[in-house]
Amino acid sequence: METGRPHSQAPQRETPPKAVIRIRDLHKRFGENHVLRGFDLTLYEKENLVVMGKSGSGKSVMIKCLVGLMEPDEGMVEVLGQDLATLDRQELDRLRSDIGFLFQGSALYDSMTVRENLEFPLRRHREKLGHFTDTLPLVTEALESVGLAHAIDLMPEELSGGMKRRVALARALILKPKLILYDEPTSGLDPITSKEIIGLMRSIQGKYGTASLIITHDVDCARVIAERILLLVDGINYAEGSYGELSQSTDPKVEAFFKK
Amino acid sequence: MDYLENIWVRIITFLRETGELAEFSGRFFREAFRPPFEFREFLRQCYQMGNRSLMLVLITGFIIGLVLTLQSRPTLIEFGAESWMPNMVGISIVREIGPVITALICAGRIASGIGAELGSMRVTEQIDAMEVSGTNPFNYLVVTRVMATTLMLPLLVIFGDLIALYGSALVEYFKGAMSFRLYFNSVFDALSFGDFIPATVKSFFFGFVIGLVGCYKGYYCKKGTAGVGKAANSAVVMASLLVFFVDFMAVFISDIFYEL
Amino acid sequence: MATTTSQYVRLGFFVIAGSLLLLAMAYLIGNDQNIFRPTFRITSVFKNVNGLQEGNNVRYSGINVGTVEAIVMENDTSIRVTMAIGEDMLRHIKGNAIAMVGSDGLVGSMLINILPGEGPGQPIRDGDEISSFSRITTQDMLTTLNVTNENAALLTEDLLEVTRALRKGSGVLGKLLNDSLLAGDLKESFHNLKISTDQSRQAVTRLNHMIGQWRLEESALTLLMDDPAFADQLRGVAARLDSSGREINDLTQRLNGLVGGLQDGEGTLGLLLRDTAMAAEIRHGLKHLDSGLVKFDQNMEALQHNFLTRGYFRKLERERERERRAEEKNR
């Protein structure tokens, strides 16, 4: 989906990797509450980036701006080389088919079976079927990659929290996205299940070579998975670095995240 | 002072809701004519709303017919007008009681159901998930449901009308020794298209209002479990009120046409 | 919750059944209004349609054959009514048929009755006009008068019976009628009777007057009046009513006199009742009176009610008994 448009503000590196997501000066207000006040973020190909912040710090708002579920008040959001503000509905839908989104509470459709849940994104994106004429091979493949092939005909209410999260992950994967956004992937799960999910996230990244943007407030999750961590404090990208760098920081606002 | 402010807030809320509902129905008409039409989901909703409400409508209709006849018998007998029972019951059921009672039952059953369903989908981000997977949730959820209620309600009203007339005929048969044939002959003799057509047209609007209010309340549900309960509850209240309002308008308008 | 085939089948059944019922209902309602039947139109001009409305039924010799389609005021005195009649009636209705406004029962809606005319006539065609007949018809009048006459005859009979009973037990009743309430009731009945007699006599006068007028007038009504047998019949009814009315009046006056006389009569009930044999006779007399009066309509109900005073008599008797026993003890 790279348009090959010349990047005027290309990162100053020797071999500049392609940016998958570029956010510049993002602002979002809810009435009196000024949540994002000039947030910047860049995510490169095949990289995974963890954004950490307290509840209500605007992490979810930011990630929703990335897929057009919310519109920023100010600022530029560019995903896979396309500026979201310039897209019409169809172009936005086409762009979204290259993005996988794992919602906080799994967001499985209660009234559908696991199979129908996974088929749902394929309804509007038949081109992703490739040479298959049926959805079943794709559904099975996605379910196998999360280890739940046997659950294909179950209803979401028959699944445990961890299984739901895995099905949701399979649904995010089914369109073979170039980028996966995780909104609190481990929230509401016990530590063991969390580890399983994190393991899955890593194996998927290794298998498909996707870029990942992970939003979380779970330090353990960040430690295991993050190549780079970005702290969202007071509506701006307050600090950035690897887990090792940040956990040694003496800045009280940064320390607050990593203190036991 | 506090009291006045409270009233002011209520007025503002009322106006805002009216405006939002108008905007919502405008959006419904815009989206309804925009492809794709989600036919399978529409059929599923028709089944949910039509077949699943039928039993309730039949039972209530039957009892209403029975009770209406039993209650008015003594008065009619006093006037020696017992033979006018089919005419009176027939006209009142077809013109008013049948459509309104059916609509109120459906407001209770369907509007609250839709409100709760869409509300919980909103709260658990299922609606966002749909949007992200390239399916227009308004088209998929709202248009199909509103269409289904609009088309199913008149059919339910017909079933309700006939079962109510049957209940009434049963009373006349056992207590008044009036044959079924005479009863239904008198009913259809008394009825004219001027009774039947406005009532049927009215039923379509009842169905539309019920579906629309349920969807509106669910679609704009506030976060949290309490929000879902509130959406379901206020959907019933608002739908019932609007049914009466539409009824008033319908009677008013058909009266004007009758005069012409 | 996937939509299964059986759900589709059930939904299909529901929709088809509902639509069929809707159509059936529309058909049954429309059938009644001749909407799905080929029709033809005839018109008739009336002076007064007595609240007839568009959509009211049209009957031919008592069968529903169509509906009123339009009611148009033509000028200040004539109203043109257009009727849509089922085409199958085309060969039955003749050009000399007469349309009249009637009503369906006592509280029923208005309708148009088409009656076949006298003798053979031309077959009617679409758009023809047939003659009409006003609402106050001699037929109606005759029917009403006949009923009045019968009622009057019944009343006379009842009254005769009452008088007979009164005569028979006059002594007893004389005392009884000192009870002014009872007398009042009776008097009221007589008064009502008188009013009704007066009314029927007025009706007869009016009728006579009308007959006189019709004779002079060359109106559509002479059509009927030309039939001498009919006119005689009408006059016969009037004469009978007149005589029975006079009879009732006579009776009423006599009864009034009787009651007046009785009220003036002296003696008390108590005096009478000292004799138990006498009391039995009273009861016997009252029973007679009762049977005579049962048929005497509503106004007399009060009188019947007052016969409950029998209980009062019995109570009096018991008191007497107690007194007598007390006397015996004292002795």
UniProtKB/TrEMBL annotation, chain A:
Q: Which UniProt keywords apply?
A: ATP-binding, Nucleotide-binding, Transport
The record places domain ABC transporter at 21-259
Q: What is this protein called in UniProt?
A: ATP-binding cassette domain-containing protein
Q: Which GO terms describe its molecular function?
A: ATP binding
Q: Which SUPFAM superfamilies match?
A: P-loop containing nucleoside triphosphate hydrolases
> Per its UniProt record, what Pfam families does this chain match?
ABC_tran
Q: Please, which domain of life does this record's source organism belong to?
A: Bacteria
Automatic annotation (TrEMBL), chain B:
Q: Which residues form a coiled coil?
A: none
Annotated TM spans? 53-70, 146-168, 203-220, 232-253
Could you tell me where this protein is found in the cell?
Membrane
Asked if the keyword Flavoprotein belongs to this entry, the reply reads no
Protein topology in the membrane: Multi-pass membrane protein
Q: Which domain of life is it from?
A: Bacteria
Q: Which UniProt keywords apply?
A: Membrane, Transmembrane, Transmembrane helix, Transport
Q: Where is the signal peptide?
A: none
Q: Which family does it belong to?
A: Belongs to the MlaE permease family.
Supply the name of the protein.
ABC transporter permease
From TrEMBL, chain C:
Query: Where does the Mce/MlaD domain lie?
Result: 40-117
Instruction: State the InterPro entries in the record.
Output: Mce/MlaD (IPR003399), MlaD_Phospholipid_Transporter (IPR052336)
Q: Which domain of life is it from?
A: Bacteria
Pfam families referenced in this protein's UniProt entry, alphabetically: MlaD
Which PANTHER family does the UniProt record give?
A: INTERMEMBRANE PHOSPHOLIPID TRANSPORT SYSTEM BINDING PROTEIN MLAD (PTHR33371:SF4), INTERMEMBRANE PHOSPHOLIPID TRANSPORT SYSTEM BINDING PROTEIN MLAD-RELATED (PTHR33371)
Q: What's this protein's name?
A: MlaD family protein
Q: Which organism is it from?
A: Robiginitalea marina
